[in-house]
Amino acid sequence: MTGKPQPAPEKLRCGACPVLCYIADGKTGACDRYANINGQILRCDPLTILDRRIEHGGDLVPFLKAEWDGAPINDNDVFVTAIGSGTTYPDYKPAPFIVSREIDGVDFVTVVTEAIFSYCGVKVKIDTDRHLGAEGSIVRAQGEEIGHVMTSEYGSQMLSLGGVDHLTGGSKSEGRVTCDALMNLCNKRAVEVTIDNGATVMVQAGKAPIVDGKLETRMRVGCGSATIGMFASQWRNLVDEVVVVDDHITGVVSEHQAGKVLGWPETGIRIIGRRSTPGRYFRVAEPGLGWGGTDIEDPLKILGPWNPKKGARAGLTMLMVSTTGEQFAYYVLDENLEPRQHALPTALEASVSLIEENCEPSLCSVLFVGGAGGSLRSGVTSNPVKLTRSVQSLRTNVTCGGAPVYVWPGGGITIMVDVTKTPENSFGYVPTPAIVAPIEFTIPRQDYRNLGGHDDQVRSLRDIARHGGEYSFDIRSIPSPRGGN
Amino acid sequence: MQRATGKMLPDGRRLHLHHGPIDLIIDVHGPGRSDALAQAIARFDTVLIELTAELEMLRSATTPETQFKGAIAARMQRAARMFLPTFSTPMAAVAGAVADEILAAMIRETKVDKAYVNNGGDVAFHLGPGQKIDAAIAAATAGRITIDASDLYRGIATSGWRGRSHSLGIADSVTVVARDAAIADVAATLIANAVDLPGHPSITRVPASELFADSDLGDRLVTTRVGDLTTAEVNHALDRGATFALDLLNRGLIGGVAVELNGQTRLIGAGITKTIQQGSLAHA
């Protein structure tokens, strides 16, 4: 035989839905919506385009190839995000969109793609001093293990969810539930998680957490000791003793440095707990959902017998308050030096509400963390490590759906982004399972050439608006979530 | 990648659920309407993912032994194996099985008088006491199907070589009434395959895999064009289909069927006058 057989026309794998059809040139996939037209996967169903417009209404301002009226687009007003850009397969093909824009007179290139993250997860910060579960406890969704409780932060409990071990390292169901939870959290939807030997929490980015069915409203103003420090002078001369009950550090004003400075007299109070420094006590009770993140419902339980030799006397007054001001009680010692509860005097109401006022609203925040160091870099440049170095040296700016990201120091491109800054429904999934997140690399054009970028693939914003990309009709343009720029 | 989406159609009445190749149009009557719609949306969310998990096996020839994990895949297998030894793959039941599954989710603990899930012409429906459903057969000589609550049948499906799925036969349309949509779906596919004139020069066929690389029909020849046929040839092809359909009817697999080719129609089934009638409203 002479001559080589002609290579068969390339079949493309369509990534538009989980069926992942291989589509030959000129044919459509199982859906009849996506077709391989001259080596491009194109959407060819006007109904869906209309649907998408309806779907993406609201605060987004979508434009679609079909509807663009031809008016010039101001580069500075528009940021092409990777949402809906699709991904190309195999990875070494240039990314779906490589856009040139002029920013302050300099020609910039933005490489736009949707990246498939197998190594990704979310860090969740839950503003509450309530005890949700011990550090290291397993966090579950729908009974499947999706992460763990990590080191708590000031006034907040922290969860680390997802990650490759849960996505692909466990059972199929574990992977699917994890993927679902991550995507919902990233898309700002509510997800219920339960913590082994701990609480059940409804988490939603930008919303207050719901702990065991109870909506959290405020985060504490500070630990008990800090609260004493802030408000001691306002209590002086209004009450003889103040105890701020807190799971972390319970404060006692008469013993605390802040009280001493004001010349606060001794009261003979005794706190059951481990004394740290004067007026500051650790472990007055077990963690829980009661006062100040402890398990106590009756605050008197943390008090021992009063000592008359150190100032305890009948008629001595005491305010006990939690670190959020949500719980408070006022007591007067009787003849036997037993505290008896009385109504809170009007003069003290202001100081209790001041604690409440100083508490910030309790929120859940969700940061998506993913490693973009893999093969997706090939869609950006033919020399992937150069992209990594350029990102690390801050020459290349990385965004996620247009939102600013924090790039972790060290090797690779590990990014962290506040999901509330990304547009609606920015995150998707593939059945691997893995999360699909938009990612954009913006870089001066000259630098882009230098690092071996696909310079011949660079297109103007106008051209992209007019002609779309591989998944042409999925483009949408939105005002920059950052405002300005 | 797309997720499942759901939205009301502009008439504000019917719900459109879409994911990849699946489009469902759903309507519900009764006090539990909003619950039923919510349950449809909830159930639909993972339907395509569940199917893709077992897609390769679903695209293989039906055997009596194969077992599937997913609820919909199990429905497909159950329907397809009823028709053995005739060749099919469980995919022949996919549209009907999805419709059945969503319908089942909708009527679970809801007060529904009447509901239907239309998956591209394969319809599963629920009829409360005293309710009936009217359906138009989408073919040149359009007939109507009327089924009331006292009938056994809760599924209608239509197949043909001009439709979205590929056919081994030449029927323009085969509409089947059966106990559920999955069974109707397989039956319509197989009857449409049987309406055929093997080796006829006017019929163009190509391997299914050329049209769609991942086709469950592999290299089997599927019809892409039907040229001129004589009336005798049309009758002969219809007879072949009718013979096959009658066998299914006698085996209790289907309630009735309307087969159409080149403007000629055969209506088959003992309960046919009840379930399938030539409609007076065909041209309304």
Would you report the number of β strands of chain B? 14
Oligomer state of the chains in this structure: heterodimer
Mean pLDDT of chain A: 77
Low-confidence stretches of chain A: 1-7, 45-79, 86-96, 468-485
Shape of chain B: globular
Give the percentage of residues in beta strands of chain B. 25-35%
Q: Count the strands of chain A?
A: 31
Largest sheet of chain B: 9 strands, antiparallel
Number of distinct helices of chain A: 9
How large is the share of residues in beta strands of chain A? 25-35%
Major interchain interface with per-chain residue totals: A-B, 30 and 21 residues
| Overall pLDDT level of chain B | 85
For the largest beta sheet of chain A, what order do the strands appear in spatially?
15-14-13-12-9-10-11-8-23-27-26
N- and C-termini, Cα separation of chain A: 63 Å
Helix/strand order of chain B: EEEHHHHHEEEEEEHEHEHEEHE
Which bin fits the share of residues in helices of chain A?
10-25%
How is the main sheet of chain A built? 11 strands, antiparallel
Strand order of the largest sheet of chain B: 1-2-3-4-5-8-9-12-13
* Terminal-residue CA separation of chain B: 42 Å
**Structural class assignment of chain A:** alpha+beta
Low-confidence segments of chain B, given as residue ranges, are 270-284
Protein architecture, described:
The complex is a heterodimer of chains A (485) and B (284). By secondary structure, chain A is α+β, with helices and mostly antiparallel strands. In chain A, 17% of the residues lie in helices and 30% in strands. In chain A, the strands form 6 sheets. Chain A has an 11-stranded antiparallel sheet. In chain A, strands 6, 7, 24, 25, 28, 29 and 30 form a 7-stranded mixed sheet that branches. Chain A has a 7-stranded mixed sheet with strand order 18-19-17-16-20-21-22, covered by helices on one side. In chain A, strand 3 and strand 4 form a beta hairpin. The radius of gyration of chain A is 29 Å and the shape is elongated. The relative contact order of chain A is 0.17. Chain B is an alpha+beta fold and 284 residues long. Chain B has 9 helices and 14 strands. In chain B, strands 1-2-3-4-5-8-9-12-13 form a 9-stranded antiparallel sheet. A 3-stranded antiparallel sheet of chain B has the order 6-7-14. Chain B has a two-stranded antiparallel sheet with strand order 10-11. Chains A and B meet through strand 2, helix 1 and strand 28 of A and strand 2 and helix 2 of B.
